[in-house]
Amino acid sequence: MDWYEYENKNGVKLVYKRFSEFHSVAVGLFIKTGSRYENPKLAGISHFIEHLLFKGTKNRSCNEIKEAIEGVGGSFNGFTSTEGTCYWIKILDKYLNLSFDVLSDMIKNPLLKQEDIDKERKVIIEEINMYRDIPAKYVHELFDNLIFENHPLGMPISGTPETLSEIKREDLINYLNTKYTGENIVVSVVGKFEVKELKKVFKKFFEDIEKKEKNKFENWGRGEKGPKVKLMIKETEQTHISFGGFAYSFEDEKRYPLNVLNVILGGNMSSRLFNRIREELGLAYEIRSFIRQYQDTGIFNISAGISPENLEKTVVEIMKELKKIKEKGLKDDEVERSKRFLVSQFLMGLEDSLDYMLWIGEQKLLKKKMEKINEIVKKIEKVKRKEVEEVAKDIYKKENLYLAVISPKGDENKLKEIIGDI
Hints:
Elements: E1 4-7, E2 13-18, E3 24-31, H1 45-52, H2 62-70, E4 75-80, E5 85-92, H3 96-108, H4 114-132, H5 135-148, H6 161-166, H7 169-179, E6 185-191, H8 195-206, E7 228-233, E8 239-246, H9 255-267, H10 272-280, E9 284-293, E10 298-306, H11 311-328, H12 332-349, H13 353-366, H14 373-381, H15 385-395, E11 402-407, H16 412-419
Parallel strand pairs: 2-6, 7-11
Antiparallel strand pairs: 1-2, 3-5, 3-6, 4-5, 8-10, 8-11, 9-10
Helix pairs in contact: 1-7, 3-8, 9-12, 9-15, 10-11, 11-16, 12-14
């Protein structure tokens, strides 16, 4: 089995995979809440809470939390995404009980001291300002805002300085009490452990969490059609672009041919965009494509850093590659190479216990039905060239193209005209 499952009466779920040959165990505590679950006025609160839970509990100070894990050679961290929050520990198997103790303590007994709140608010605002000073990163925030408009999916995960400034201690406490509840929690464990001991520890630390109701979010409804361009004029050495459109959710079977298409377009150094834009024309040091999938929608994206004078030329060349795929189709050998690449990357990624833990944890948290390793491999291998070409025709349309640019110069109308020519 790729994993086993267990559930407490209060709705807290356990998903686990045992590897007896390992020395370590990776434990992840997943909460089904992220930026898209937030009230716009409190944008960034999920990420804010994630930071604050490391600052101390009723049982441990901030330093004691760190020393408890790092003092026995373990590593730990947390992250917030659009649809989930995770706190994780990787540690030697004999400290399994300790990892459950610390993680459960963090979510059940946080201090949320006012001085920590005020201090961490400043830290996160500085983090936001830092990313805004990095055009290669900030351009993707502009893209999300452009394509998702005023929907929570278009808001930055960290929030904004304005929204963070308005978040009060009672907001944080209320959010924890309503979102961090039984049926919204998944514990994922991968590595060396005894199953009987794991279930005993799981019950010990998580059976007292209250069960309330499943967290809900605002469904995405299609906004203004493209082509749309958002140009931010800023004095930068390079021009950065984030270009793409809507695709499919991670529940949609079309995600498999979409993934194959993504690799062919710009997913590795053998891709069409890399060969054309970088190798042949020398227009960019880095150009890549990727996809992001949510519970009810998804996007495809192309990003690049280029010289300001090459902005329009680069966008023209990207459009040529999209049109070639739509009009002339794909070659059988590149489809097969893409499928082999996807399968290999997927399987090799599961060789690390932390990555495996994150994979099954996120599946259990967000998907209606978890997919097994061999099911995913078979679905990738079964993808036909025609299916990939049909996906390209479906998503590479002018009404589905959006472009965000950070550059010292540019013509928004000209760029709109270029991406509308398909």
